[in-house]
Amino acid sequence: MARKKAYNEQEVLEKAMHLFWRNGYENTSTRMLEKEMGINQFSIYSSFGSKQGVFVESIKLYKKKIKEITTILDNSDNGVEGIKNYFYDFLKFSTDNNMPKGCLLANTVNELGMNGDEVILSEIYSFIDKLKKSFLVKLSKDKTKDTTVLAKQADHLVVSMVGLSLVSKIFDREMLTNYIETIFDNL
């Protein structure tokens, strides 16, 4: 007979996500996960299969959490201004107790690079593709631009977003605001 879990899987996953967000995938050990999640290694492997399994589930949870601001973007009728608001909303989202953490996905790409784990990269690319499509929808409200220009601008915004997420961990608010404003002044 299977034993009943003495922990809430969603709660321990939330703790793991924040640990990975702060430390990165490679710098987070199974021992650190045990301590942060408050469960033992057997329970981690029983629920998630491996450290990679915990991380993939953490990424999925992160994507659900960031969905709140991507939904605001998707529901916006303000075109480019809606995208700009998304950049500012992201800065708020990525700060925890006045401690900027950047984006879990961008941090992971920066840490692992293109040769990272295929399963992990697949989760990241699916988010990036969706974000690019959202940007394209908003950009396409400007009927004076052809699809080639819109695609280039969407790529520019995705790369700018990744850049913002990385530098948001170290630069002050004024510098970040200037960066965002310049991005949109040049569209």
What would your notes on this structure say?
By secondary structure, the protein is an all-alpha fold. The mean pLDDT is 91. 72% of the residues lie in helices and 2% in strands. It has nine helices and two strands, in the order αααααββαααα. It starts with 8 loop residues before the first helix and ends with a helix. A hairpin with a 2-residue loop joins strand 1 and strand 2. Helix 7 packs across helix 8.
How many helices in DSSP terms?
A: 9
CATH class: Mainly Alpha
Please trace the helix and strand order, writing H or E for each element. Answer: HHHHHEEHHHH
Mean pLDDT: 91
Rg on CA atoms, Å: 18 Å
How would you sum up the global shape?
elongated
- CATH topology term: Tetracycline Repressor, domain 2
Determine the N-to-C terminus distance.
Answer: 62 Å
DSSP, total strands:
2
Which architecture per CATH?
Answer: Orthogonal Bundle
What is the share of helical residues?
A: over 70%
> How many structural units, i.e. domains?
1
In short:
The protein has 187 residues and is mainly alpha-helical. It has one domain: Tetracycline Repressor, domain 2 (Orthogonal Bundle).
Topology:
Elements: H1 9-23, H2 30-37, H3 41-48, H4 51-75, H5 80-93, E1 95-96, E2 99-100, H6 104-112, H7 118-139, H8 147-167, H9 173-185
Antiparallel strand pairs: 1-2
Helix pairs in contact: 1-2, 1-4, 3-4, 4-5, 4-7, 5-9, 7-8, 8-9
Which tags fit this structure?
2 strands, Tetracycline Repressor, domain 2, two-stranded antiparallel sheet, 187 residues, 9 helices, mainly alpha
